[in-house]
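Write out the 3D structure for:
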Amino acid sequence: MLPTKHKDLTSRTALELRRLIGRRDISPVDLMKACFDRMETLNPGVNAIAATDFDRALAQARLAEAQVMRGEPLPLLHGLPIGIKDLQHTAGLRTTCGNPGLRHHVPTEDTALVARLRQAGAIVTAKTNVADLGVGSNTRNPVWGATANPFDPQLTAGGSSGGSAVALATDMLPLCTGSDTGGSLRQPAALCGVVGLRPSPGLIANDHRVLGWSTLSVLGPMARNVADTALLMAASVGAHPLDPISRDVSGDAYWPLPEVDLSTLRIGVVEDFGGCPVEPDIRKTFRDRVKRLSGLVHHCEPIDLGLGVDAHRVFEVLLAETLEAAYGALRHTAPESLSEHVLASIDLAAACTLADRAWAQQEQTRLARQFASALTRCDLIVAPVSPVSPFPWTQGFPERVDGQPMRTPHESLALTYLPTLATNPAMALPCGVDARGMPFGLQVIGPLRGDAALLAAAQAMELAFQTDASMRRPRPGIEALLKPNPGLVRDTPPRR
């Protein structure tokens, strides 16, 4: 059985917990201990948590409690435990990126986002598991092992932010960070029944981006509902001198969110972006959710983006360039530390010409303009997040989708990497379950830098979904998670 002393605290929203802390109704210390208890009870069954910082986190919770009792002004996330994706540097806490070459890496400084969240009062409690170097649609690596889906521990949580998604879905932590290149944040959020936002590039500064001017990879917030996601977004945004594309924006734009009248919204529906393979059961589920959504909004109609772009090749070239910049040197000095698909991308980069790069940039620009044009005819675009239901975590990626073989490990992510290429903000919004009883996520896409409006509209949708059992966010049962799943875990360094 779960511990009873702090049982109810971990199921509360981040927003509610923050209000209770501010009113002195709960102690940050009790909340932290409740999260510890929850992690120690459930993590052996899902392996979402990598390195932990329990001693320092508890000390910071005591400090947060003292600040409350002294009546000091409290920042936005004061006293809230947070999980940090194990790609993002945390001072004094192991950051492995799930890679054996970084197994014992302990940074001396926080990445800009982590520093900003600490300043906002969040308490870094644990690192969350990732795909090796954050590359892949399945969260597993040679350091920490695999992360299981809490709705079926034999299946994947998605990747690469699977640890964050599972920690949220199982109420281990109220807030987590993620990152997203081709869908690394949105896909696991959808497959685990939580919310994840890929923001417009530049809103959340990333001082560790290897290609400083690239818009391909962004950092983003993850939570169990839209309001908590917006709260974390508000604490995350802002410029940083070491990120040349970061923007000087205020968190006030993201919190509190304004109310949105759903009946005024014009929704454009895209089932496969004109050619992405999608499993028939996922199409059927998506059509059912669109039909239900259409009764809530002004109109919900198919929209033709007229892409006509070889997006698969565009993404392949731009991803190869990114991985070459980040890990190309290791190709020659320590190739054994790189996974097979990272090596393949680096080899592709070596074969690309300047003409290939120019073509990819041109096509990306054309695609972005087509998305922008479509969003003058509607307020939001909705699409599926994942073309498949969760597959076994022992499998690296779905090798076939709707009968089509996937040429590369990332081709099955086309539904999410198209909005990535367009640079539009896009989020995974829980929307019931699919035909197999696994979480289904609706991808909601807004205009570039329209993140606040996107969040506000998604919050209105989420509220409306609560009245329909087939639309509301699913919750995993915990009975199957109480038994440790040793097959998930590698021979790892100590978690503490």
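Residues 1-6 have pLDDT under 50 and may be disordered.
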